[in-house]
Amino acid sequence: MNNTVKWSIAGSVVVLAVVLALLPGMLRNTGPAGVEETGVDKPAVAQVDPRPDCPEADVAGVSLACLGGKSVGLAGKPTVVNVWAWWCEPCRAELPVMDAFAAAHPEFSVVGVHADPNAANGAAMLNDLQIKLPSYQDNIGVFAGKLALPNVVPITLVVRPDGTVARTFPRTFSTLAELEAAVSEVTL
């Protein structure tokens, strides 16, 4: 065997060893900003301002941590879910409408899902806007992923008491009347 063939074989062995060493890291499924995606949302690590408690139930079959609060029992009601993010200006405008809907319609459970890993900024925005509705924290997009939601915020869902999604609204509601009209068209 000549030297060229020997060096080619040796180089191939080295490249193969490097690829095999890096392969587990390359195959790991990661979410945004390198956050490992396990299918279970992890609670936020940052200090989060206190917020209202969340209903103690999965949201449309997805289990999420409560943003700045704890979970409390509340079952058997249809739920209006608003998916939002702290950096989203249309969300900032729509959250007061969701809060007003919650106050006007106690027959519904109304909750938010903060779709961003920065829980502290989410809780701070809700507190700054004096939003009283509880919100769940979704660090890695588990909620939108499991429900195959469009990659957009805000998005509003109406969920039946049995946990099935009755309707999805990928739009911004500007007034309480708009939201009431949309929800009233949904068959629960």
Automatic annotation (TrEMBL):
Sequence ranges assigned to domain Thioredoxin in this UniProt record: 45-188
Query: Does Disulfide bond count among this protein's keywords?
Result: yes
Q: Which GO cellular component term is one of those annotated?
A: cell envelope
Superkingdom per UniProt: Bacteria
Cell membrane listed as a keyword: no
Compartment annotation:
Cell envelope
What GO annotations for molecular function exist for this entry?
antioxidant activity; isomerase activity; oxidoreductase activity
Give the transmembrane ranges. 7-27
Keywords, in A-Z order: Cytochrome c-type biogenesis, Disulfide bond, Isomerase, Membrane, Redox-active center, Signal-anchor, Transmembrane, Transmembrane helix
Write out the GO biological process terms.
cytochrome complex assembly
Q: Which InterPro entries does the record match to this protein?
A: AhpC/TSA (IPR000866), Thioredoxin-like_sf (IPR036249), Thioredoxin_CS (IPR017937), Thioredoxin_domain (IPR013766), Thioredoxin_ResA/DsbE_sf (IPR050553)
Name used for this protein in its record: Thiol-disulfide isomerase-like thioredoxin
Q: Which organism is it from?
A: Corynebacterium epidermidicanis
